[in-house]
Amino acid sequence: MALRLDGKALAAQLERELEARVRAGLGQAGRPPGLAVIRVGHDPASAVYVANKERACGRVGIRSFATHQPADTDQQTLLKTIQQLNRNPAVDGILLQLPLPRGLDGRALLLAIDPDKDVDGLHPLNLGRLLRGEQGPRSCTPAGVMALLQRAGIALEGKRALVVGRSILVGQPMALMLQQANATVTVAHSCTVDLLARCREAELLVVAAGRPGLLGAEAISPGTVVVDVGIHRQPAQREGDRGRLCGDVRAGEVETLASHLTPVPGGVGPMTVVMLLVNTVRCWARSHALDPVLPELH
Amino acid sequence: MALRLDGKALAAQLERELEARVRAGLGQAGRPPGLAVIRVGHDPASAVYVANKERACGRVGIRSFATHQPADTDQQTLLKTIQQLNRNPAVDGILLQLPLPRGLDGRALLLAIDPDKDVDGLHPLNLGRLLRGEQGPRSCTPAGVMALLQRAGIALEGKRALVVGRSILVGQPMALMLQQANATVTVAHSCTVDLLARCREAELLVVAAGRPGLLGAEAISPGTVVVDVGIHRQPAQREGDRGRLCGDVRAGEVETLASHLTPVPGGVGPMTVVMLLVNTVRCWARSHALDPVLPELH
């Protein structure tokens, strides 16, 4: 049976480590870390995500600066909000919750965020820093995967890794992070020929295709480390049911083959949230000349 | 026999196309494109490269703003030079010739260049734009390789590509460009296990390892497209000789196996220089609302 890469447990552990760091640094910093989440409109999933992030901030001792703006807010108003947060010395991190209502230019808004407060790691400057191997906030989901692998003691150097999916949120930065850990990385995508053969060659498989149950036993060689980034709600079987959550991997088929497997839910998901906190506390520590926060988690 | 991917001929062809574009746009723009090359100190190879670039500018109708500063120039003076060029409306492109004398912080100088004038495509913002698939100046050597492949009609979609080397100058941006052309790309490097097996799996092999004669017949499957980015001068055989140029690939062994091969010299090298001109003319055209320049070459 595959060892379970328990993101829920690790996220809770990292929250405790962060909370201790925040408490220890409060004296020197003179203020707690601050995270501003900008939410626009009424996307119901976003409401849940933002509430989760705020609760997590509370547990760690990060002050939340929540901004909830109506769906018809115009670009200029949002730009001003971002500029104010850029200048606000109590704010270490700024996150623009996606998706945005139609008519807003998300890219322009992202570009307006001070790259050193871009705790989502999505500003092109931070992606460029990642590519160059320089310091800067790292994209949360792939950074969470790296933390899971690292704390599980999985060696990456020289490993053949396949990242399935090339989104800017996950696949692309994931490939770069694995490569910086000296894995030999291939990126597969919708145009890849014979995806299953490529998967079977991999010793580490990160699946971030956004397609429920895309890969199963046919794609896994025995002993592969399997990281499932997908999260989807299956159609309800009966009235009143909410439907079960599943990933991009058919876990039931894979768990006897893989050496390690991230569960869905409870694998990569909780790591994404905690890495947002890590990025925020890191920005705070840097601006107050405190010791680096969790430096071993890149 | 492998078809020869003749970079010298294509570079000459692209220079003619650029020259025509510059001539046609002069009226609307009111001035020619301008390229500023900053050279510091007395590296002899740099002197040759800079002279080559200036001559190429002359052929195309780009005005050169050469700045040659003494080896003991301090960081502050160079920063001022860059800031002046950033503000100079006659300058479309700024290139900082490497290597710099010891004691100068090349990264800080690179960061000071206006990203929209960074015709070397090395500013982290431009690397981030490349990662995000956004417009911006592209790193010249990999862009030159893409142009060679494109003009030779080599289809990339779905092809298995291996990039050997992960430098920020070549390997990393090369992998991203091939991926954006829908190839399935793997990046190999010094920690890669069984490099030869990885090479033999590739349908397109780009070798940018910086090691003379690293790969030969043992690394090539029949029908592979082989791009050799290396250029090295071999030790002279006799007194008075200069020594022959060679690449990272042992061309003599490979040319009966490969479907296409870039010669050294005359392959990738001339493409690097011409892509610098392409980037400069593109910046000029954009700032004067002229039609896009060679848009099919990404």
TrEMBL record, chains A, B:
This protein's UniProt keywords: Amino-acid biosynthesis, Histidine biosynthesis, Hydrolase, Methionine biosynthesis, Multifunctional enzyme, NADP, One-carbon metabolism, Oxidoreductase, Purine biosynthesis
Pathway this chain belongs to: One-carbon metabolism; tetrahydrofolate interconversion
GO biological process: L-histidine biosynthetic process; methionine biosynthetic process; purine nucleotide biosynthetic process; tetrahydrofolate interconversion
EC number: 1.5.1.5, 3.5.4.9
Origin: domain of life: Bacteria
Catalytic activity: (6R)-5,10-methenyltetrahydrofolate + H2O = (6R)-10-formyltetrahydrofolate + H(+); (6R)-5,10-methylene-5,6,7,8-tetrahydrofolate + NADP(+) = (6R)-5,10-methenyltetrahydrofolate + NADPH
Tetrahydrofolate dehydrogenase/cyclohydrolase NAD(P)-binding domain span: 139-286
Subunit details: Homodimer.
Protein name in the entry: Bifunctional protein FolD
Organism expressing this protein natively: Aphanocapsa feldmannii 277cV
Name of the gene encoding the protein in the UniProt record: folD
